[in-house]
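To make this tangible, we now present a fold written out as C-alpha cells:
***
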Amino acid sequence: MRKQAAACAFVLWTLAPGILGAETTPEEFEAKLGYQTGTVTLSGGIATLRVPPSFRYIGPEGSRRLLNEAWGNPKEAAQDVLGMLIPSGVSPLSEEGWGIVITFDEDGYVDDADAAKMDYAKLLRQMQEQTTAANEQRRKQGFDPVRLVGWAEPPSYDAAAHKIYWAKELAFGTNTDHTLNYNIRILGRRGVLVLNAVAGMHQLAAIRSEARNVLSAVDLNEGHRYTDYLPGKDKAAEYGIAGLILGAAAAKTGLLKGLWLGALAFKKLIIAGGVAVVAFLKRVLGGRQGDQRNA
C-alpha cells in the first residue's frame, strides 16, 4: 500500500528487522525519543502547545530519529520539523501507531477574506486536476498513480481563531485500502503553523476527534499571531485560503517540494523530487491565485 503525506506527515509503521540496528530493541529506541507532557513551547517561541492527555510530545531531535531511523524517511524529510504529537495509547513503532508532525511555513500573512465565499466543490476539482497532472511524473519515477477521491472532511475555517482543518481521501494505484490525509493549519503573522497526518480511512473517526483536541491545544504566541500582522511592513503571502488549501494538494503535500509517498507495504515513507511537477504546479497555482485576485 502506498500513502502520500505532507512535507511533514505521519505514517503507520511496523518495525522491520534490523531497521533500528541489531543492538537496539523497540522499547530501548522509544525510551530515547524524549517524550514530554504538559505545556511545551515550540522552537523559536513561535507557539505554545498544551499537550492533550491523549498525546505525548517529542521535540525536533526525537522527531528526526523517529522519522528517519524508525519510519525510514531520508534526512531532508525531517530537517524542518518542530516536533511531533504521538498518541499515548499506542507505540509509534506498532502497526497502529501514528503521529502528527508539526512544521512552520514562513510564506507570509495569509489573507482570509476569501474564506466566507469559498466554493469547496470547485476547489476539490482543481485539486483533483493537480493530482492527476502529477501522475505522469510519478509513473516516470516508478510510483503508483494517485487519485484524489474527495473530501473525507470538507474544510472548516474558524475566522475568530484563524484556524482551519480539512481531510482528503486518496487512492494509490489499484489498492482498495484508501488513505486519509488530515490537514490542520493555524494562520499567523509571518506564515502558517502546519500540522499534518496521514493514515487509513478506517481511522477517520478517531483522528477527527483527536484533531479537534489538537486544534484547541495549540496557539501562536504574542508577536507571532495573526492579529499582530503589520500591513506594509510584514510579508504577505501570495495566496488566500483557497490557495492555502490548493497548495496543500501540491506544495504542502510535497508535490512542489518533492513527491511524498508512504509505502505501507514496507512501513516506511519515501521522498522523491520532481522538477517537471514543480514547474507545472507553480504555473497552475500561480494562475489560480491570479483568478482569485481578479474575482
Notes: Residues 1-18, 251-295 have pLDDT under 50 and may be disordered. The helical segments are 26-31, 60-70, 120-140, 204-217, 241-248, 275-294.
